[in-house]
């Protein structure tokens, strides 16, 4: 689904590169979290993948496509939810269809179905300002899904939520995951969240990437945060992040 080979990148030729010969592969249907210290380049990596930035060296392939623009080929949810406050929930959700010049009215049954799965049916005519943080994040996520792209890049989607709301979002996302049939790259600074949701975790640090597999069984439940395996892995990742390797 995604292949990054020997990617090097620095902002306007600054001496210290953000990435130096970084490589990673993500398979179709995988859920991969990206963790790392603040300023490590996680958001920058997403901008390179979605074509907002171009690498200095190396290759980024989406679905085997080496050449041409990557812009518009992935579903991207930026770090801030960026819902349009003058548009209703429904009008925000159909925005990608409008941009892609699709007839969203024809897709209305599918859209209604998704609104219901995202627990948003009752709010389709509400405005974002009237809604809770958890709802706003679900709207932004649904809007990303409506791009119809197979690869979704989610930049700290639950980062601003309180822990209770976040837990509910995890429960909800894990319940939905089997049906989504998407490939997800998920930036988070919450290690427990990264382990609970992911098949693999990439730690980005000092321009390099370290990979860990998560061996928790699927389907997952939020109860698994108490599994010794998760707790052990969390310790290990914490060490990796905070200590010099
Ligand atoms: N447009 C930009 N121009 C110059 N430097 C930038 C720009 N955007 C980000 N940076 C720098 O690149 C580094 C990585 O930023 P970022 O990808 O946002 O980190 P993260 O998302 O991991 O916290 C930081 O040091 C940041 O200051
Ligand atoms: Mg960031």
Automatic annotation (TrEMBL):
Protein name: ABC transporter ATP-binding protein
SMART domains cross-referenced by the UniProt entry: AAA (SM00382)
Chain ranges of the ABC transporter domain: 2-231
UniProtKB keywords: ATP-binding, Nucleotide-binding, Transport
GO molecular-function terms, A-Z: ATP binding; ATP hydrolysis activity
Keyword Transport part of the UniProt annotation: yes
Matches recorded under PROSITE patterns: ABC_TRANSPORTER_1, ABC_TRANSPORTER_2
Pfam families: ABC_tran (PF00005)
InterPro entries listed in its UniProt record: AAA+_ATPase, ABC_transporter-like_ATP-bd, ABC_transporter-like_CS, ABC_transporter_ATP-bind, P-loop_NTPase
């Amino acid at each position: 689904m995604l292949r990054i080979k020997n990617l090097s990148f620095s902002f306007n030729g600054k001496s210290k590169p953000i990435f130096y010969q970084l490589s990673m592969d993500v398979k179709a249907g995988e859920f991969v979290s990206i963790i790392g210290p603040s300023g490590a380049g996680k958001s920058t990596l997403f901008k390179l993948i979605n074509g907002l930035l171009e690498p200095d060296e190396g290759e980024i392939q989406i679905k085997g496509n080496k050449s041409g623009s990557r812009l518009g080929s992935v579903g991207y949810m930026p770090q801030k939810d960026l819902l349009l406050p003058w548009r209703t929930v429904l009008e925000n959700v159909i925005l990608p269809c409008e941009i892609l010049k699709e007839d969203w009215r024809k897709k209305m049954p599918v859209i209604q179905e998704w609104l219901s799965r995202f627990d948003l049916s009752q709010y389709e005519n509400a405005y974002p300002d009237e809604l809770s943080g958890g709802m706003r994040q679900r709207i932004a996520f649904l809007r990303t899904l409506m791009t119809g792209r197979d690869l979704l890049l989610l930049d700290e989607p639950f980062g601003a939520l309180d822990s209770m709301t976040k837990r509910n979002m995890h429960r909800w996302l894990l319940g939905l995951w089997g049906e989504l049939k998407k490939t997800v790259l998920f930036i988070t600074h919450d290690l427990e969240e990264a382990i609970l949701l992911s098949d693999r975790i990439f730690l980005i640090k000092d321009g390099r990437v370290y990979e860990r597999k998560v061996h928790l069984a699927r389907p997952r439940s939020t109860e698994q945060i108490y599994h010794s395996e998760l707790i052990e892995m969390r310790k290990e990742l914490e060490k990796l992040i905070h200590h010099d390797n």
